[in-house]
Design a protein that fits this description.
Keywords: Hydrolase, Protease, Serine protease. This is S9 family peptidase. GO terms for molecular function: hydrolase activity. The structure is a single chain. The protein is an alpha+beta fold. It is built from 14 helices and 37 strands. It has an eight-stranded mixed beta sheet with strand order 30-31-33-32-34-35-36-37, with helices on both faces. Strands 1, 2, 3, 4 and 5 form a five-stranded antiparallel beta sheet that branches. It is globular, with a radius of gyration of 27 Å. The two termini are about 45 Å apart. The N terminus is likely disordered.
Length: about 700
């Protein structure tokens, strides 16, 4: 009896033991499920799992690994199909369900592999000097389509795939030079053609980078090269065959039994960087075109009778419209009446319904469109995000993110939902998770603005706490409980004793085109009013310490942080990450430069537009910034450009303000989402440490 009492007492103590707070290194524990794909027979599905593991080659560093898993829809069992240091991507079933094709990362040149479920190791189907992606099986199961790319210079001289000597129909835009240079011996002392050959060799040897393109900025470097999408077909025993003329610049292709549907630039004579309009083509035939519009995201129906696509104006700010075109009668087009950013579509097997996911009020729910009634119905709530899904015989299987868990696979039937995987449930069981409360208000423009409030993990009634206002980027991004990227950061700050407030101000996605465009020519004051209203309503709850306020955000949110602290001194401390601070400069140095004409109606050399850009640039008001500011930027971030942060930091330093500037070597704009994991930890810890200098947190 004494032993039983001891066991019961021990169990009681364990059951009542407090849960642990989220730690910064819990970031490394998060596993992420990829899009599930149901087998042709409907009894199994495949999915990927991305983990963060120790880097075997660099001590104290970490790498991402993505591997393939097979799930049984009846038994609920799963098993890994791949392992090792080489990650895989884009898995796809063969038509009979006996094999799976995928690409495997083999360093700089990923290749297509096929795994036979009957047994054996994955077999390489390609061995090209080019990186390949997105394998797709032919309907017969005897061939595999896949994508790669050449540079224009590579394809011009390629003796295998350009035997016919194909040339671009558009100019290479070398001033005063027409066509392709003659083949000559390189000689710096020779005639003009030989000098040109010598100079061309210097470019090959990376002694010079000659830029004639408009879009010369990539994510981490500049380039003079123009990538040309190339589509191939290979049999399981043969060699790859090139299916298109890469100079035609196809994109978003769908492989039909009798040809290829593709998005094609509307003007074949203009340089591709300058062509914004596009059309849907089938070989040389135009299926659908509309002046002033661009198409994207094709999805062919099972019988090849219908084609889904999205259409948007080529310039300006609006959501794309989801449409369905009849391929037997292209004049017959059905519009899906939903004014949201659609992220994935899937046909039902009988083509009576179209399933899709879309951003919606802080979530990413699943919807269905009935082709007979033309009605849209929402199938899941806005409290979570469906990040990838497929249709089963009795419902759905999907990867989902939510507050309780950042990523798992779920199986849903008509009357039940079950958690299929346990990627994160184990380590989360001992953690104290803070659940945000959703609120809303109506702003000065009459728009409903959603915001969320998280109290500190150890919140006690009657106490006052510091609060951090978190702002999202984009500016067309959307935050909410169905968005995975900020799950860990929000929980971490709550664990450190701070309340967290985040909102979707005017200009956010997930609320329709009018709301999306409500910040056109108003990046600063309007959105500031919205996020500050969310903060003020939180303060009105009575638990926030108004002398202990912080604000942070990245990209456009880095912009808005700097705007806010240049217009108010309410915040004790601030952190601006990878932001844009001077809009005229951004036009030149960021690869996202088209935001300037789209949002502000013109270019910096135009007097009217220049006045707007100056008015809307936080840098114009830099002398007003007195809030201590931490500035982050990835050393190789060309989406916004590092000169932006250098200007802001240098100016504040000259003004004698409290400012600290952190550059992450090799870091790009994606650093906090998918970048080097040690740098992700570093940025979060540096932000916390900087805040702790000014706020009452430990």
């Amino acid at each position: 009896m004494k032993h039983l009492l001891f066991v019961l007492l021990s169990f009681s103590l364990v059951a009542q033991s407090p849960k642990e707070k989220i730690q910064v290194t819990d970031l490394l524990k998060i596993k992420t499920a990829g899009k599930p794909l149901v087998s042709p027979k409907g009894n199994q599905f495949i999915y990927t799992v991305t983990s963060i593991v120790d880097d075997p080659e660099k001590k104290n560093d970490f790498v991402y690994q993505t591997h393939l898993y097979l799930g049984n829809l009846q038994s609920g069992e799963s098993r890994a199909l791949t392992s090792g240091k080489n990650s895989i991507s884009s898995p796809t079933w063969s038509p009979d369900g006996s094999k799976i094709a995928f690409t495997r990362d083999m360093g700089a040149k990923s290749q297509v592999y096929v795994l036979d479920l009957a047994g054996g190791e994955p077999q390489a189907m390609t061995n090209l000097p080019l990186a390949v992606s997105n394998p797709v099986w032919s309907s017969s199961g005897q061939d595999i389509y896949f994508q790669s790319s050449f540079t224009a210079k590579e394809f011009l001289v390629d003796s295998v795939y350009n035997k016919k000597g194909l040339l671009p129909s558009w100019t290479l835009e070398k001033p005063m030079l027409l066509g392709v240079a003659k083949k000559s011996k390189a000689n710096p002392n020779g005639n003009l053609d030989e000098v040109r050959a010598y100079l061309a060799q210097n470019e090959v040897d990376k002694k010079a980078k000659v830029i004639n393109r408009l879009n010369f900025q990539e994510e981490s470097t500049t380039t003079s090269e123009l990538p040309l999408p190339a589509y191939f077909k290979t049999s399981l025993t043969g060699k790859p065959v090139l299916l298109n003329n890469p100079f035609q610049r196809w994109s978003d292709v769908e492989f039909a039994s009798n040809g290829i549907y593709a998005i094609v630039p509307a003007d074949s004579l203009a340089h591709p960087d300058k062509v914004l309009d596009s059309y849907i083509g089938f070989g040389s035939k135009v299926i659908y075109q509309k002046a002033g519009y661009k198409m994207s995201n094709l999805a062919l129906s099972p019988s090849e009778k219908w084609l889904v696509f999205q259409e948007a104006k080529s310039t300006g700010v609006q959501n794309a419209t989801l449409q369905i075109i009849s391929l037997t009668n292209p004049s017959q087009i059905v519009k899906v009446l939903i004014d949201r950013v659609v992220t994935q579509v899937k046909w039902s097997s009988d083509e009576s319904k179209l399933y899709f996911t879309a951003q919606n009020q802080g979530g990413a729910p699943l919807f269905v469109f009935d082709l007979s009634t033309k009605q849209v119905k929402q199938l899941t709530d806005n409290n979570s995000g469906v990040l990838g899904f497929d249709v089963t015989n009795s419902g759905f299987v999907y990867a989902k993110t939510g507050i309780e868990n950042p990523s798992e696979i779920y199986q849903q039937s008509a009357d039940s939902v079950r958690t299929y995987t346990s990627l994160n449930t184990g380590w989360l069981a001992s953690k104290n998770i803070v659940r945000p409360t959703k609120h809303a208000f109506t702003n000065a423009k009459g728009y409903k603005v959603d915001y969320w409030v998280m109290k500190p993990t150890d919140y006690e009634s009657g106490k006052k706490y510091p609060v951090v206002l978190e702002i999202h980027g984009g500016p067309s991004a959307m935050w909410g409980t169905g968005e995975a990227s900020m799950w860990h950061e929000f929980q971490y700050y709550a664990a450190k004793g701070m309340g967290v407030v985040y909102a979707n101000p005017r200009g956010s996605g997930g609320y329709g085109s009018d709301f999306l465009a409500a910040n056109v020519k108003d990046w600063g004051a309007g959105p500031t009013a919205d996020v500050m209203k969310a903060l003020d309503l939180t303060i009105a709850e009575g638990w926030a310490d108004t002398t202990q306020l912080a604000v942070t955000g990245g990209s456009y949110a880095g912009y808005l942080v700097s705007w806010i602290v240049s217009h108010t001194n309410r915040f004790k401390v601030a952190c601006a990450q990878r932001g844009v601070y001077e809009l005229s400069t951004f036009m030149g140095e960021g690869n996202a430069w088209r935001l300037v004409p789209n949002y502000f109606g013109g270019y910096p050399w135009e007097k009217t537009t220049k006045a707007i850009l100056d008015r809307e640039s936080p840098y114009t008001y830099v002398q007003n910034i007195k809030t201590p500011l931490l500035i982050f930027h990835g050393e190789n971030d060309l989406r916004t450009g590092v000169i932006q942060s250098e200007m802001l930091y240098k100016s504040l330093k000259v003004l004698g303000r409290d400012v600290e500037y952190v550059r992450h070597p090799g870091g790009t704009h994606e650093l906090t989402r998918s970048g080097n994991n040690r740098q992700r930890l570093d940025q979060m810890l540096r932000t916390y440490e900087f805040f702790a200098r000014y706020l009452k947190i430990q």
